Amino acid sequence: MTVRSKRRTTRAARKRRHLRVRKRVRGTAQRPRLCVYRSARHIYGQIIDDDSGITLVSASDLGSTAAAVTDEDGSGKQASARAVGRQLAQTAQDAGISTVVFDRAGYLYHGRVRALAEAARAGGLVF
Predict the structure, then answer these.
(1) Residue 125 dihedral angles phi and psi, to the nearest 5°
(2) pTM for this structure?
(3) pLDDT value for 64
């Protein structure tokens, strides 16, 4: 199997998992959806109201505040994911959001996705 065909298979498998998860997970105004996107270098989180189709809160490790917080935890991808989770929870609390539905977007609940989720829970979000 070539590298190209393996990559396509991996991407397609994640897409199938994401669609399977999204059948059940839906964000409402009372309980919006916390969606995670993980690229090779960065991690992003959004809190989305699916009824109105708008993003209420977003955070990523590209922002200067997350980069500054990352220095406390040390370096590395999991440390930046924890910083994004804390930043997302703080911004959500400021916006009046306390409970969310977690959407892992087809990624395994492991590593950076888990670090972001646990940091968001520690920051006050309930899911």
Answers:
(1) -80, 140
(2) 0.82
(3) 59
Q: How far apart are the first and last CA of the chain?
A: 40
Dihedral of the alpha carbons of 16, 19, 24, 27, in degrees to the nearest 10: 140
Residues 6+ apart with CB under 8 A from 7: none
What is the pairing mode between strands 43-49 and 33-38?
antiparallel
The three-state secondary structure class of 53 is: coil
Instruction: Give residue-wise pLDDT tens across range 52-81.
Output: 999 999 999 997 565 555 556 677 999 999
User: What's the rounded Cα separation, in Å, for the pair 112 and 45?
Assistant: 12
